[in-house]
Amino acid sequence: MALEFEKPLNAKTTNIPGMLVFDLPVHGDARGWFKENWQREKMRALGLPDLGPVQNNISFNAERGVTRGIHAEPWDKYISVACGSVFGAWVDLRPGDSFGEVYTCEIDPSRAVYVPRGVGNSFQALEDGTAYAYLVNAHWSAELKKTYTFVNLADPGLAIPWPIPLTECELSDADRAHPMLADALPMEPRRTLVTGCGGQLGRAVRAEAERRGLPGFDYCDIDTFDLSDPADYAEYDWSLYGAVINCGAYTAVDRAETGEGRKACWAANAAGPALMARTCAEHGITLVHVSSDYVFDGTASNHPEGEPLSPLSVYGQSKAAGDLAVTGCPRHYIVRSSWVIGDGNNFVKTMRRLSDRVADLADALERVTVVDDQLGRLTFADQMAAGILHLLGYRDGDVEPSEPAPHGTYNLTGSGAVRSWADIARAVFEAANGNGSAVAPVSTAEYYAGAEGPIAPRPAHSDLDLTKIAAVGFSPRDWEDELAEYMAAL
Fold this sequence. Notes:
Elements: E1 10-13, E2 20-23, E3 26-29, E4 32-35, H1 40-45, E5 55-61, E6 67-72, E7 77-83, E8 86-92, E9 102-107, E10 111-115, E11 119-125, E12 130-136, H2 142-145, E13 149-150, H3 173-176, E14 191-195, H4 200-212, E15 217-220, E16 241-246, H5 259-283, E17 286-292, H6 314-326, E18 332-337, E19 340-341, H7 347-360, E20 368-371, E21 375-376, E22 379-380, H8 381-392, E23 408-411, E24 419-420, H9 421-433, E25 439-442, H10 444-448, H11 467-471, H12 479-489
Parallel strand pairs: 14-15, 14-16, 16-17, 17-18, 18-23, 19-22, 20-25
Antiparallel strand pairs: 1-2, 2-10, 3-4, 5-12, 6-11, 6-13, 7-10, 7-12, 8-9, 8-11, 21-24
């Protein structure tokens, strides 16, 4: 095939989701030719994921007709030809609606193809002395090899139009023995590790993943994996993972103001996320890290994601440090929340118990004081879990991510009106026993007057702006609607 010179760089999509074909500008004269085979920034702008290659391989094919494949391996590939030309054929072997989709095209030095993990890859050399090159973004390991899957080159159901009949080609015995598509095993998605699985958010993520039937989710808590202990990282084969959702945190904000509490807080909220961010960066893993309204001083009435960090407390400072560490991971989501309510001890359950206690007392004048100068919205853990999966690219019916949101920081709380803690307490009391009048609003200073031990400063305003999360297609429910359902289920 004749090499086409001076094509503009462009990319086109294919019928296989996520697979891209690039036209490459090749500059030539009587001496030969030159091209930029892979150019990170230009190709990212055209839709190529930042694949982070760790290895460059070349397959030299001495004679025309050499045919290899169809192999689906657990890494992304960026394929090109250094000399000669090939006929390439790809089969989607990922579970889902596109399983079995076929795409074919010819590749010479002026064309390159990005092949997502789990798409079976094969080619036929069309010229003697063809050098077929590819970048991959994972190192080979014995564990990864166990996840390979294959399909037969000659499967009539695939109807691949090989230019040279396979009966005339050089094939390996292994390639001849691969199963037909009807018997091929879909490639398992990369696994997802959920840390802090015993907390309110960790439980919610697990419940949501199980409700959707998502495969490949692993769970751990502080008793089995301490994020701040470098030795614990050796227990995992990180090449198997595509995402980590870090739900673990130290949240005893007042205890964090003590000597021992400060150490534990910084270990869990800063040192641990820093180690995890480095690990994820080294292995091309997406890291989801949960942040807090406490990274702000609360002087602004509304907090967008880009507001400069200004924490007041030890807890807030440790969370801010963790956020900064996580930004060093190229593929990261920082999910910032406030006033989390889920399966576990929380403010709503405490207020419900107090409401019951007041209702049981003979003295109808019993009052419960709750602060009214801290303003925000509740964040229900089920909405956070759904939002995190949405950012990772899971849509209804997906068993692996397909449409991830742009990486970065996102606020994620319940939507609706901004209220005080006293307002919320009053709503809980009223729903539980019709005794909302028993809630007595007080200032934060009054509430903590005479308290024993250090008290952490709280941000006065915790209203997190939700414009950015809505722009990527996720709209959290109104927290007051969720509160009503939560109360009914208690």
